[in-house]
Design goal:
269 residues, six-stranded mixed sheet, Rossmann fold
Length: 269
């Protein structure tokens, strides 16, 4: 369970980017965070994994307070927080397998990391996960030879190799075409259920948030404006979050039904 209480993030003397946010995410919930640029969506995710230092407040993951951790304790906690990035954050000159195994860096010795001598069980788990998302046949291919959707699937598997207790996705579809972005959202949705893993997704596309997540949290100027089911997210909520200014067209256009036969089947996206 993720428990955020009165989270504040301020840069210098400027107005806080996050203003006493409270949020609880539990079980295998898939929660989307929506809001205009600058609303604090990415900052909130980066506070959770301590890529950004919170100014004040509490962030607890399965009972562990993350805000005050330092050194080895912080490194151990970060192993349990998977992160999927908009820009993929792969090492292009390395193979898919090598990028995936980077998710185990927090668990192996420096020698193993430098020489890339990972335990056999890690290699076997990597193949299993890559097969699950349909990229096992790319194991020995360089990352820079893949398409955007394939690269993002590598990023997802790398995060899962950490054996995380929560998965954070920071605009995971923003760099992808519409069809591929829907495939990635379906993948995250199905993995949450299969692995009993809570997933928190920062996303601009409101239609995809409504179609592929079971809860929507809306931020505006660092404050929570909406927290509810997709079916309750209507024009009033949209106006409140975006200040009465129409969201970009791609954010509100209709998305395919969750029951569409196109997309993810077990074993392959």
């Amino acid at each position: 369970m993720l428990e955020i209480s009165k989270l504040v993030k301020r840069y210098g003397n400027d107005e806080p980017v996050l203003k006493e946010l409270d949020l609880v995410v539990e079980g295998s919930s898939v929660v989307s965070i929506v809001g205009a640029s600058g609303a604090g969506k990415s900052t909130m995710l980066r506070c959770i994994n301590r890529l950004v230092e919170p100014t004040s407040g509490s962030i607890r993951l399965n009972g562990t307070e993350l805000v005050n951790l330092r050194g080895g304790a912080l490194r151990r906690a970060r192993r349990k927080i998977g992160m999927v990035f908009q820009g993929f954050n792969l090492i292009d000159r390395l193979t898919v397998m090598e990028n995936v195994l980077a998710g185990r860096l927090g668990y192996v010795s420096l020698y193993q990391a430098v020489t890339r001598r990972y335990p056999q069980q890690d290699i076997e788990r990597a193949f299993t996960l890559m097969e699950r998302v349909g990229i096992a046949h790319y194991a020995n291919k360089r990352a820079d030879a893949l398409s955007g959707g394939e690269r993002q699937r590598v990023g997802v598997v790398r995060a899962l190799m950490q054996e995380p207790e929560i998965l954070l996705a920071d605009e995971p579809t923003a760099s992808l075409d519409p069809r591929t972005s829907e495939q990635i959202m379906k993948l995250l949705q199905s993995l949450a259920q299969e692995l009993s893993l809570p997933v928190l997704i920062n996303i601009h596309n409101v239609a995809q948030a409504k179609a592929y997540t079971e809860r929507i949290v809306g931020l505006r100027h660092g404050k929570m404006i909406f927290d509810g089911a997709p079916g309750d997210f209507g024009k009033e909520a949209l106006d409140a979050i975006y200040g009465g200014i129409e969201a970009p067209e791609e954010e509100i256009t209709a998305a395919p039904s969750r029951t569409s036969s196109e997309g993810v089947s077990h074993g392959q996206i």
